[in-house]
Amino acid sequence: MRDATEALIVIDVQNDFCPGGALPVEEGDAVIPGINAAMEDFATVIRTQDWHTPGHSSFASSHDGRAPFDEIEMPYGPQVLWPDHCVQDTPGAAFHPDLRDVGAVVRKGFRPDIDSYSAFFENDHETPTGLHEMLRAGGIEAVTLVGLALDYCVAWSALDAAALGYRVTVPAALSRAIDLRGSRAAMLDRMAAAGVTVL
């Protein structure tokens, strides 16, 4: 068992991000057995859940003439437009059935006008999700981040965690990437530069 000051953060292991889903990450479901095993090593486990409103502003379908994976400017900065995914109370937003039902759940991306990659902040980098406060209240000093997708929600969570002063580890074997326009390599470099330990 890990030290009580360490937490495992399981990012967005949801049906829509797994094969057959609306925004599938290649081999996204392959990480689940390893994540389930890792859960046994941590006293504190928190799962995050992408939880979008219908017609969310990050969906390509909400922008006339736009296609999935186009990039636009939003008031908070650049935004990739995604296929409709992880809509609240739909099967796609549910956790993958093989993922162990362990730990607290933090929902993100539920504000209709702003996306949320990071488990700590919405994409404006200001609006908190409540995760940081939860971890601090539990005396957590180090986080291990696993799940989907490595180059988006996992990486942005890792960067924010490092900026907030946590010791951060990302075991790449327990994550998979979308790799949109070289995003996997770019975000691995950014995490390393921020002091994140990528295994």
UniProtKB/TrEMBL annotation:
**Pathway connected to this protein:** Cofactor biosynthesis; nicotinate biosynthesis; nicotinate from nicotinamide: step 1/1
User: Could you list the residue ranges forming a coiled coil in this record?
Assistant: none
- The EC code for this enzyme is 3.5.1.19
Kindly state a single biological-process term from the GO annotations of this entry.
Answer: pyridine nucleotide biosynthetic process
GO molecular function annotation: metal ion binding; nicotinamidase activity
Q: Which UniProt keywords apply?
A: Hydrolase, Metal-binding, Pyridine nucleotide biosynthesis
Query: Which stretches make up the Isochorismatase-like domain?
Result: 7-198
The keyword Metal-binding appears for this protein? yes
Kindly give the InterPro entries that the UniProt entry links to this protein: Isochorismatase-like_dom, Isochorismatase-like_sf, Isochorismatase_Nicotinamidase
Q: Could you confirm whether the keyword Hydrolase appears in this record?
A: yes
Similarity annotation: Belongs to the isochorismatase family.
Task: Name the chain's protein.
Answer: Nicotinamidase
**Organism from which the protein derives:** Pseudoroseicyclus aestuarii
